[in-house]
Amino acid sequence: MISKINHIAIVVGDLDAALQAYHDTLGLPIGERKVMPQQEVEIAFLPTGDSLIELITPTTEDSGVAKYLAKRGEGLHHICLEVPDIEAALAEMLARGAQLINEAPVQAAEGRAFFLHPKGTHGVLIELLEPYPQADSE
Ligand code: ZN
């Protein structure tokens, strides 16, 4: 059911500085960047072959990501696993007894998604994602 790692998300304090560092150090191209008002974050993607590194920074002081950054500092935020059918994935995870953060898929930057609680995955937030149909060139 899980087809690949879609992206690995890293929370950063300064998106411009982090993008430049990932570009300069690893030589990764700088991809799409977008503000997500509902999630109170700005994100930027660095394509890594068939997957992405997603840099994420809070745009408000009291969002979930802002609290995470304040508490834990910069670093790994979540790993995103791609699935072809988000509803089927949700039903299967519930049947397997997964601890979910949201009981229904939400609109994420890249598609429809839900999250598994880190308590059930040994400390790592896991996103399951059904991507929107690709319109851009890859
Ligand atoms: Zn994500």
CATH topology description: 2,3-Dihydroxybiphenyl 1,2-Dioxygenase, domain 1
CATH architectural designation? Roll
- The residue fraction in helices comes out at 10-25%
Can you count the beta strands?
8
The largest sheet, given as strand count, sense and whether it forms a barrel, is: 8 strands, mixed
Number of domains: 1
CATH superfamily: 2,3-Dihydroxybiphenyl 1,2-Dioxygenase, domain 1
General description of the model:
With 138 residues, this protein is of the alpha+beta class. It has one domain (4-131): 2,3-Dihydroxybiphenyl 1,2-Dioxygenase, domain 1 (Roll), CATH 3.10.180. It contains three helices and eight strands. Strands 2-3-4-1-5-8-7-6 form an eight-stranded mixed sheet. A hairpin with a 4-residue loop joins strand 2 (33-36) and strand 3 (41-48). The longest helix has 12 residues, at 15-26. It is globular. The chain binds zinc ion (ZN). Residues 7, 9, 54, 78, 80, 108, 127 line the site of zinc ion (ZN).
Short descriptors:
binds zinc ion; 37% strand; 138 residues; alpha+beta; single chain; 2,3-Dihydroxybiphenyl 1,2-Dioxygenase, domain 1; 22% helix; 8 strands; 3 helices
